[in-house]
C-alpha cells in the first residue's frame, strides 16, 4: 500500500510539472488562492485517480480529502447553503456561538442579518463589528420613518433569509413574519418548556421561578415560534440539574452553557435539512451519522 501511495504521489507530481510548462493563461477563470496551473492539474488528474482513491484504505482517503473531495465523500455538498437572520435584544451570546459555528463549518449556513429592538445592545454592536447588517425592529418611538412588520418581511426576503433564529429577543414576533416563515422560526428558552414559559418569563425571572418552585431539573428548550410566547412545538431540550444551594445566577450560568451547545446543534440540523415532522405534527431531529436514529 505504501508503494502504491508513493507511486500515486509521483504521478500527481509529474502531471503538475508537465502542466506548469503550458503557456495558456486561464487565471481569469479561477479565483485565488489556487493558481491556474494547480486548478488545471486538479481537473486533469481527478478523473483518472478518483477510482484508485476510492478503493484505498480510509487512511489514504483522509490524506487526499480536500483535493479530491466529491459529493459522495461530502454529503453536505448536496444541501444548499442556508441564510440565517438572528434576532437579539441583549448581549447575544447565543448569536455569537452560532456565528462562530458558521465560520468553523459546524453550521452549514451564513448569518446575513441581525434584527434587534435595541440598537445599542451588545449583540448589535458585535454584528456591526463583523459586517453583518443590523435592522432595528420595532423602531424606536418617535422615529421619523415608519418601519412596519411587512417592511421587516420584505427586508429579510431581500437578504434571501431561509431561517429566523430568536436568541434572547424579548418582543412578540408579528403575525406577518410568522406567516411568511412558517416552520422556519426558532427560539431558545432557558427552561424546560412548557414549564416556566410565557409572557414575563425571561432571563433571571425564569431561574428564580425554577428555584422557588423546588423543581429538581431545568435546562434550555429550542422550539418553533407561533403567535404566542413560548407555545410553539418543542424541537430539542437539554437537562440541567438544579442543585440544593443554587442561586439564580449559578443556575443561569450552567443553563446558558448548555444553550450555546444545543442551539448550535439544532442550527446544524436545520441547515443540513435533518428536521423531520412526524404525522402528529411533532418535529424530530435526525442523527447526522444515522438517519434512522432521532436525537
TrEMBL record:
<keyword id="KW-0150">Chloroplast</keyword>
<comment type="similarity">
    <text>Belongs to the GART family.</text>
</comment>
<dbReference type="GO" id="GO:0006164">
    <property type="term" value="P:purine nucleotide biosynthetic process"/>
</dbReference>
<feature type="domain" description="Formyl transferase N-terminal">
    <location>
        <begin position="82"/>
        <end position="266"/>
    </location>
</feature>
<dbReference type="InterPro" id="IPR036477">
    <property type="entry name" value="Formyl_transf_N_sf"/>
</dbReference>
<comment type="pathway">
    <text>Purine metabolism; IMP biosynthesis via de novo pathway; N(2)-formyl-N(1)-(5-phospho-D-ribosyl)glycinamide from N(1)-(5-phospho-D-ribosyl)glycinamide (10-formyl THF route): step 1/1.</text>
</comment>
<dbReference type="InterPro" id="IPR004607">
    <property type="entry name" value="GART"/>
</dbReference>
<dbReference type="InterPro" id="IPR002376">
    <property type="entry name" value="Formyl_transf_N"/>
</dbReference>
<dbReference type="GO" id="GO:0009507">
    <property type="term" value="C:chloroplast"/>
</dbReference>
<keyword id="KW-0658">Purine biosynthesis</keyword>
<dbReference type="InterPro" id="IPR001555">
    <property type="entry name" value="GART_AS"/>
</dbReference>
<keyword id="KW-0809">Transit peptide</keyword>
<dbReference type="GO" id="GO:0004644">
    <property type="term" value="F:phosphoribosylglycinamide formyltransferase activity"/>
</dbReference>
<keyword id="KW-0934">Plastid</keyword>
<protein>
    <recommendedName>
        <fullName>Phosphoribosylglycinamide formyltransferase, chloroplastic</fullName>
        <ecNumber>2.1.2.2</ecNumber>
    </recommendedName>
</protein>
<keyword id="KW-0808">Transferase</keyword>
<dbReference type="Pfam" id="PF00551">
    <property type="entry name" value="Formyl_trans_N"/>
</dbReference>
Amino acid at each position: 500500500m505504501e508503494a502504491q501511495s508513493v507511486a500515486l504521489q509521483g504521478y500527481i507530481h509529474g502531471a503538475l510539472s508537465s502542466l506548469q510548462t503550458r503557456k495558456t493563461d486561464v487565471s481569469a477563470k479561477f479565483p485565488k488562492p489556487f493558481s491556474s496551473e494547480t486548478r488545471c492539474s486538479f481537473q486533469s488528474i481527478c478523473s483518472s485517480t478518483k477510482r484508485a482513491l476510492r478503493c484505498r484504505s480510509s487512511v489514504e482517503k483522509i490524506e487526499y480529502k480536500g483535493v479530491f473531495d466529491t459529493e459522495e465523500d461530502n454529503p453536505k455538498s448536496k444541501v444548499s447553503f442556508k441564510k440565517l437572520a438572528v434576532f437579539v435584544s441583549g448581549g447575544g451570546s447565543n448569536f455569537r456561538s452560532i456565528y462562530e459555528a458558521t465560520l468553523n463549518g459546524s453550521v452549514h449556513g451564513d448569518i446575513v442579518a441581525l434584527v434587534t429592538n435595541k440598537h445599542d445592545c451588545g449583540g448589535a454592536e458585535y454584528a456591526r463589528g463583523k459586517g453583518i447588517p443590523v435592522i432595528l425592529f420595532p423602531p424606536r418611538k418617535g422615529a421619523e420613518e415608519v418601519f412596519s412588520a411587512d417592511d421587516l418581511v420584505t427586508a429579510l426576503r431581500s437578504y434571501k433569509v431561509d431561517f429566523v433564529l430568536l436568541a434572547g429577543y424579548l418582543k412578540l414576533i408579528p403575525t406577518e413574519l410568522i406567516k411568511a416563515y412558517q416552520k422556519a422560526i426558532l427560539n431558545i428558552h432557558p427552561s424546560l418548556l412548557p414549564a416556566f414559559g410565557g409572557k414575563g418569563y425571561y432571563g433571571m425571572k425564569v431561574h428564580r421561578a425554577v428555584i422557588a418552585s423546588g423543581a429538581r431539573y431545568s435546562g434550555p428548550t429550542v422550539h418553533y415560534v407561533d403567535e404566542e410566547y413560548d407555545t410553539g412545538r418543542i424541537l430539542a431540550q437539554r437537562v440541567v440539574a438544579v442543585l440544593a444551594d443554587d442561586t439564580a445566577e449559578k443556575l443561569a450560568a450552567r443553563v446558558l452553557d448548555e444553550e450555546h451547545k444545543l442551539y448550535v446543534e439544532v442550527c446544524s440540523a436545520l441547515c443540513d435539512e435533518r428536521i423531520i415532522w412526524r404525522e402528529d405534527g411533532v418535529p424530530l431531529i435526525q442523527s447526522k451519522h444515522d438517519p434512522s436514529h432521532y436525537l
